[in-house]
Amino acid sequence: xxxxEVFTKExxxxxxxxxxxxxxxxxxxxxxxxxxxxxxxxxxxIKVPLDELDSFLQDVNCPEVIEIK
Length: 69
Hints:
By secondary structure, this protein is an alpha/beta fold. It has helices at about 10-15, 55-60; strands at about 5, 20-25, 30-40, 45-50, 65-69.
C-alpha cells in the first residue's frame, strides 16, 4: 500500500476526521511539514509550510497528533 498525497487542505480534513492518528514530520531545511493521516485503509499525506502548521493542525480534527523529529 503506497501513500496517497492530496493537495488541498479541505480534502485532507475529510480524511483526518476518520483517521486513527496523524503524524507530523518537520523539515526545517526545506521549510515544510509533512502530515500523514492513517485511516483503516489508507495513508494520506499533505505538505504544509512550517508557518501555517500550527493553524492547520488546529483546524484538523485528528484524534491523536504525534510529532516525529
